[in-house]
Design a protein that fits this description.
The protein is an alpha+beta fold. It is built from seven helices and ten strands. The longest helix has 61 residues.
């Protein structure tokens, strides 16, 4: 015996309990049409979103890569700051000379060579013949090595070796803090303008020197991106600079020249109250 039987369209009746219920009515053509329309609209929305993502992803990826490169090259400046700090702590609070010369005033070696033991390159430092200039044939093999820590990762197209095959650097030092044949004490800097208000090194984008050069120094007071021997970033909008207390900061090229001069001199004691307010 059948327990269930259809009494009318969409109705079911139970003979045992003499009860029944009505089934859900079939969707109307209008409802089906509306559902299809919503589904199509949803698919179109997903397609538009996917197309937008496909168009913007390369730009987003590039911006992330640029940000990562900026972070890396700021890290290299901070690394130089740490190396300079360790050097100072082991040298009676003195910074290395910008470069040293022999009795005939021939340039021998630069400040970056002094930092090799403090950036994990002690073995390389031991291979250098200090009695000969950095670019002498006796030292060619060592100073031809490209040292990533001395390069600016944001300077993507920046050369890494010169025509003679020597390894280059994308950073230079403040000539006022790194004079030739003379050491400047960090105590002197602190007592005058303060370590946090004195530029120590920074990025450069032209006339790139060999990292072993004994004349790799520049005067920040000449301006940023103002000439071949000035400090400047690859995008030519200013420059990231390492200060004597170890912090790295971007300085816009339109900074007041008097403020830039005050930040460049280690012992003049000029007031620079506008510095923190303007930047």
């Amino acid at each position: 015996m059948k327990l269930l039987w259809i009494c009318e369209k969409n109705d079911i009746y139970d003979e045992n309990t003499h009860t029944g219920f009505q089934m859900c009515p079939s969707p109307s053509p209008e409802s089906v049409k509306k559902i299809k329309s919503v589904s199509i609209q949803t698919m179109i929305a997903f397609m538009i979103a996917g197309g937008f993502f496909a168009l913007t992803y390369p730009a987003l990826k590039q911006s992330r890569e640029i940000a990562r490169a900026r972070a890396n090259h700021r890290g290299n400046l901070r690394m130089l700051g740490m190396a300079l700090s360790i050097y100072s702590n082991t040298s009676n609070q003195n910074l290395p000379m910008g470069g040293n010369t022999d009795l005939h005033s021939t340039p021998l070696h630069g400040w970056m060579t002094s930092l090799l033991p403090y950036i994990g390159e002690s073995a390389m430092a031991r291979e250098i013949d200090d009695s000969h200039p950095w670019n002498a044939p006796e030292n060619k093999d060592v100073f031809s090595i490209v040292i990533p820590s001395f390069l600016n990762s944001h300077f993507v197209d920046g050369p890494k070796q010169n025509a003679e095959g020597y390894g280059l650097t994308h950073f230079s030092a403040n000539a006022k803090l790194f004079p030739i044949d003379q050491n400047i004490s960090t105590k002197t800097i602190q007592a005058a303008d303060g370590l946090s208000n004195t530029i120590m090194t920074g990025e450069i984008n032209s006339h790139l020197p060999a990292w072993g050069s004994a004349t790799n120094v520049r005067d920040p007071a000449k301006g940023l991106n103002g000439g071949p021997d000035c400090f400047g970033s690859p995008d030519r909008k200013g420059a990231f600079m390492l200060f004597a207390d170890g912090h790295v900061r971007f300085i816009d090229q339109n900074i007041d020249p008097q403020i830039l001069k005050a930040l460049s001199t280690p012992a003049d004691g000029e007031p620079i109250l506008q510095w923190e307010q303007e930047f």
